[in-house]
């Protein structure tokens, strides 16, 4: 059975842990432990469904290898680079992003929202109003013990000291490939990267500076290389075991076997960063993005995923950037669903059509929001996937 797993599963990075789980679980099963047996059956079922899902994805979509199919007009490359330089040379306007958001989303955007969860005697009520990811209701104990481990909860001093900060949020969009914007992106004060989007091998197009790596546990890069020059690791916590994972990462401990079973893919086992580099995203920013700005309905039941009311991490990062920075730019944003055979990401073989299989996010609504932000001049779109100004 394990060797079959090995062959069937298309992602080699996922095959190792399942094997490990299997053998470990099997050792324990020699003891007559019924509960463990049930858990094991349940895991097998989940794995089966997951494999079917992946296979379905692979059979119904073609591969879109960006290095083979992607051609970018050299004139467009020049225009994109020129536009990025223009954006960088414009005067930086203090508080511009925040005040523009407050003007655009009257009563729906809070100018003073702290970006990261802080330790403090007065617990912030808004942070505990909703279940994750919109709040930490019923997790106050876990949050407090995590905060005990985190010595810092703000931007690092050298960034805080700047009177005006320019941020760029780098999305994973295939549109970023070929524009050779790397050197321009490196010039921003704060570079926000999402989930596992890699730098290694792509720095010509995506730069090699990472101020913030924002991710949930399953998205955290597995390669140490991606952390070498990372200032902040910002954790987005969705479920109970995410708190356990973060605690293990901060303490540089091994994640217990039973905790690992609850993740839907392999999670990083070590994050090579000191505790002072870790932050927890303020869940109120997700709540603000979802319910106030995107106007999604609040969770109706425990199965909130079905409501499509969870914003993508990309849009959450854009809203975070407006709270952290004075000027905000985007690169690598925009899913053009009318082009199903174009590459979805700048770093893998998925086609745009794969986006039609996801069930968590409402891409149409998100794109409308980003379009509004670009057209109103609140953010600049450096790769032109949302609205091209070059
Ligand atoms: C980025 O790449 C440049 C040139 O290759 C190198 O000099 C620089 O040290 C790199 N920076 C980081 C943060 O890795
Ligand atoms: C984590 O622990 C390992 C040894 O288990 C050590 O080599 C490594 O430097 C530690 N990492 C951090 C960030 O302290
Ligand atoms: C996305 O949201 C819009 C309203 O904001 C709704 O009309 C549409 O049906 C939603 N799409 C999906 C796929 O849920």
UniProtKB/TrEMBL annotation:
Lineage top rank: taxon: Eukaryota
InterPro entries registered for this protein in UniProt: Glyco_trans_29, Glycosyltransferase_29, GT29-like_sf, Sialyl_trans
Catalytic activity annotation: ganglioside GA2 (d18:1(4E)/18:0) + CMP-N-acetyl-beta-neuraminate = ganglioside GM2 (d18:1(4E)/18:0) + CMP + H(+); a beta-D-Gal-(1<->1')-ceramide + CMP-N-acetyl-beta-neuraminate = N-acetyl-alpha-neuraminosyl-(2->3)-beta-D-galactosyl-(1<->1')-ceramide + CMP + H(+); a beta-D-Gal-(1->4)-beta-D-Glc-(1<->1)-Cer(d18:1(4E)) + CMP-N-acetyl-beta-neuraminate = a ganglioside GM3 (d18:1(4E)) + CMP + H(+); ganglioside GA1 (d18:1(4E)/18:0) + CMP-N-acetyl-beta-neuraminate = ganglioside GM1 (d18:1(4E)/18:0) + CMP + H(+)
Annotated GO biological process: lipid metabolic process
Record GO terms (molecular function): lactosylceramide alpha-2,3-sialyltransferase activity
Chief location of this protein within or outside the cell: Golgi
Membrane topology, as annotated: Single-pass type II membrane protein
Transmembrane segments: 34-55
Subcellular location(s) of the protein: Golgi apparatus membrane
GO cellular component terms given for this protein: Golgi membrane
Keyword Lipid metabolism: yes
Assigned EC number: 2.4.3.9
Keywords associated with the record: Disulfide bond, Glycoprotein, Glycosyltransferase, Golgi apparatus, Lipid metabolism, Membrane, Signal-anchor, Transferase, Transmembrane, Transmembrane helix
EC top class, as a word: transferase
Disulfide bonds: 167-325
Family, similarity comment: Belongs to the glycosyltransferase 29 family.
Function: Transfers the sialyl group (N-acetyl-alpha-neuraminyl or NeuAc) from CMP-NeuAc to the non-reducing terminal galactose (Gal) of glycosphingolipids forming gangliosides (important molecules involved in the regulation of multiple cellular processes, including cell proliferation and differentiation, apoptosis, embryogenesis, development, and oncogenesis).
Protein name (Swiss-Prot/TrEMBL): Lactosylceramide alpha-2,3-sialyltransferase
């Amino acid at each position: 059975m394990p060797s079959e797993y090995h062959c069937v599963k298309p992602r080699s990075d996922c095959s190792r842990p399942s094997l490990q789980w299997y053998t470990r679980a099997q050792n324990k099963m020699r003891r007559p432990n019924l509960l463990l047996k049930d858990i094991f059956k349940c895991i097998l079922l989940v794995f089966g469904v997951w494999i079917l899902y992946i296979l379905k994805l692979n059979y119904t979509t073609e591969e879109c290898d960006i290095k083979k199919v992607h051609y970018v007009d050299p004139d467009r490359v020049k225009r994109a680079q020129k536009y990025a330089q223009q954006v960088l040379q414009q005067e930086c306007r203090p508080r511009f992003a925040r005040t523009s958001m407050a003007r655009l989303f009257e009563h729906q955007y809070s100018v003073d929202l702290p970006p990261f969860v802080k330790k403090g005697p007065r617990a912030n009520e808004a942070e505990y109003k909703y279940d994750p990811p919109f709040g930490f209701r019923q997790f106050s104990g876990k949050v407090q013990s995590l905060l005990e481990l985190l010595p810092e909860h703000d931007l690092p001093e050298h960034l805080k000291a700047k009177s005006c900060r320019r941020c760029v949020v780098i999305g994973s969009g295939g549109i970023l490939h070929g524009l050779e914007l790397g050197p321009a992106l490196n010039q921003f004060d704060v570079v926000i990267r999402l989930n596992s989007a890699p730098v290694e091998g792509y720095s010509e197009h995506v730069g090699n500076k990472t101020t913030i790596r924002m991710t949930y546990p399953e998205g955290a890069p597995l390669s140490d290389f991606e952390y070498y020059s990372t200032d902040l690791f910002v954790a987005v916590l969705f479920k109970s075991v995410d708190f356990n994972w973060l605690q293990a990462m901060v303490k540089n401990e091994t994640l217990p076997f039973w905790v690992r079973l609850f993740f839907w893919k392999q999670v990083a086992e070590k994050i090579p960063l000191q505790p002072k580099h870790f932050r927890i995203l303020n869940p109120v920013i997700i709540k603000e993005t979802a319910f106030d700005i995107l106007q999604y309905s609040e969770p109706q039941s425990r199965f909130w995923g079905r409501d499509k009311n969870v914003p993508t991490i990309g849009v959450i990062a854009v809203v975070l950037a407006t709270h952290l920075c004075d000027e905000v730019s985007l690169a690598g944003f925009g899913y053009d669903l009318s082009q199903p055979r174009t590459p979805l990401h700048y770093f893998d073989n998925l086609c745009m059509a794969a986006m039609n299989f996801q069930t968590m996010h409402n891409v149409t609504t998100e794109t409308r929001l980003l379009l509004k932000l670009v057209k109103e001049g609140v953010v600049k779109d450096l790769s032109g996937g949302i609205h091209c100004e070059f």
